[in-house]
Specification:
Elements lengths: L1 H31 L6 H18 L12 H27 L8 H22 L4 E2 L8 E4 L2 E4 H23 L1 H11 L1 H6 L4 H27 L1 E2 L4 H15 L4 H21 L5 H15 L14
Antiparallel strand pairs: 1-4, 2-3
Helix pairs in contact: 1-5, 1-8, 1-9, 1-10, 2-3, 2-4, 2-8, 2-9, 3-8, 5-6, 5-8, 6-8, 9-10, 9-11, 10-11
Length: 303
């Protein structure tokens, strides 16, 4: 029982990171019908921004315990702001000129942007793995044979807080209603006076900021980062969005948590060698039996 509970705690921690990244995929797809395959690289860039922000704010490995909670929060906010700017630049320079083009063109462009960002990161940060600074001092708690760290609690709490904030923003604010209007019918939303370009740019900014938050939380949990880490993490987050129902915000959150728990349960009860494989097995199963996802709906389109 203790093994199950331990893997559940670990899975929810990892899954909450996947959920934050998956929200970016699902927001962009829900608004534009576009799969932003460069989103995993935005996650990676956010992690590196957090790394350098921590050093800029005075982080010292020899006196890590003196790094204040306020500074750690500032690292998170700076990373989110930097990634938001990157996301808006990607939308403005790469995707906006292709709006209205055949769907294959933005898809190929997204893959190209992903490769471009990977290579820029290799040149800028080097290909060698880096250690993410311990901006939060770790404390371990033992309960019923289960080890819970304050970092895992922090990861889960921040993730849930950001998900709830996004849900409130989309459902209760004018801009959120504009996003939903564009998602439903872009030409009609323009005719009703919705500033589509600004709202779409903001959608990319919010999704990128959430990916950066996931990057900071990933760095705290896994500690190692390198320029190509967005490949697998981004792909898993995309699968989480598909599992929950891509285009559905709650579905992306649930999908991320389920993927994280499935991975850690597989690692705990079968083998860590199959941890990544179970994610793709889930993808195959969901595409075969419920391609719209757990919370997605089938939409009929006139052709």
């Amino acid at each position: 029982m203790s093994t199950f509970l331990q893997q559940l705690v670990n899975g929810l921690s990892v899954g909450s990171i996947y959920a934050l990244i998956a929200l970016g995929y699902t927001m962009v797809y829900g608004t534009l019908g576009l799969i932003n395959f460069a989103h995993g690289e935005v996650f990676m860039i956010g992690c590196y921004i957090g790394l350098y922000a921590a050093f800029w704010l005075g982080y010292d490995a020899l006196a890590a315990a003196s790094f204040s909670p306020m500074s750690a929060t500032l690292v998170l906010l700076l990373a989110m702001a930097g990634a938001a700017i990157v996301g808006m630049l990607i939308e403005r320079l790469a995707y906006r000129p292709l709006r209205g083009a055949p769907r294959l063109a933005p898809l190929i462009t997204a893959i190209g942007v992903s490769l471009l960002l990977q290579n820029i990161a290799v040149l800028a940060f080097s290909a060698n793995p880096r250690s993410f600074p311990s901006i939060i001092t770790e404390h371990r708690l033992e309960f019923a044979g289960v080890t819970i760290t304050n970092i895992k609690i922090f990861i889960f709490a921040v993730s849930i807080l950001l998900m709830l904030a996004l849900e409130f923003f989309v459902k209760k604010t004018w801009t959120g209603r504009a996003m939903r209007a564009i998602s439903f019918n872009l030409p009609a939303a323009k005719l009703m006076g919705v500033p589509a370009d600004g709202v779409i740019s903001l959608t990319f900014a919010i999704g990128s900021a959430l990916a950066a938050a996931g990057g900071i939380l990933f760095g705290l949990d896994q500690t190692k980062l390198e320029p190509l880490m967005g490949n697998m993490i981004g792909l898993k987050a995309f699968i989480a969005a598909v599992l929950g129902g891509i285009g559905n915000i709650r579905g992306a959150a649930i999908g991320g948590l389920l993927i994280g728990v499935a991975e850690l349960m597989t690692a705990g009860y079968i083998s860590s060698d199959y941890r990544d494989a179970i994610t793709f097995v889930i993808l195959i199963v969901i595409l075969l039996f419920r391609p719209q996802g757990l919370l997605g709906v089938v939409r009929q389109e006139k052709v």
